[in-house]
Amino acid sequence: MAEAQTAVPSKTVKFIVTRQDSPESAPYKEEFEIPYRPNMNVISALMEVQRNPKTADGGETTPVCWESNCLEEVCGACSMIINGKARQACAALIDKLEQPIRVEPMRTFPVVRDLVIDRTRMFNALKKVKAWIPIDGTYDLGPGPRMAESKRQWAYELSKCMTCGVCLEVCPNVNEKTSFIGPAAVSQVRLFNSHPTGEMNKDERLDTLMEDGGIEGCGNSQNCVRSCPKGIPLTTSIAEMNKDTTKRLFKKWLGM
């Protein structure tokens, strides 16, 4: 007589998500339990909640809102706090996370809904320092000047910034009480000031860093460089811009 087989319970993943219905409403937490699949990341888990928006106790709820795009740690859209650490949800693998997995929105930026945040502060900082290469028109300008290979190599590292906002989230000097533009914008000044065309506006960018909320707002906590998902040498950029703004200040004093 064949032995009766005991059903093996399917593996599940437990989530605790901090939610917020609107910018004005109070945050609250909901627990979810979803089926486990190999190689899941936090985004795929949130998609399971979206397909079947029920809490762990079976209650009906609304799908969790979040942002994502590339799903390969390039766009920076899916930044959130996972188990207390600001990081990219697409790169956060379920197998490497302690459960229950606690997911929260980044709090340096205003919350729009659930895990969706408003990064206007960061984008305004990039506008302020003119983090772009100006051109005179849409016509063909021909090949631009070449960069030395030694300069190009470290400039490429700075260009990896995906405006994810993690460096601003972990910086103790970026909050609602300060106007500090944050490490991302400072590093972009270094990047565009090093460009053969971008350096035409070098002094203008340095003058912006010397204004209120500029580089003087950095407290050198070095949280930014430790947390950057792209390993960008943010503190090196800040040190270099400190040096360049000091030179710029002396030149202005001397009328040069």
CATH architecture annotation name of the largest domain: Orthogonal Bundle
Number of strands: 7
Specify the structural class.
Answer: alpha+beta
Low-confidence stretches: none
Total of domains: 2
How far from one another are the termini?
99 Å
Task: Provide a count of the helices.
Answer: 8
- Look at the structure and name the CATH superfamily of the largest domain: Alpha-helical ferredoxin
Q: Find the CATH topology of the largest domain.
A: Fumarate Reductase Iron-sulfur Protein, Chain B, domain 2
- Estimate the helix proportion, in percent: 25-40%
Shape: elongated
Enzyme class: oxidoreductase
Domain 4Fe-4S ferredoxin-type: 152-180
GO molecular function, one term: 3 iron, 4 sulfur cluster binding
GO biological process, one term: tricarboxylic acid cycle
Q: Characteristics of this structure?
A:
256 residues, alpha+beta, Ubiquitin-like (UB roll), Fumarate Reductase Iron-sulfur Protein, Chain B, domain 2, five-stranded mixed sheet, 8 helices, elongated, Succ_DH/fum_Rdtase_N, electron transfer activity, succinate dehydrogenase, metal ion binding
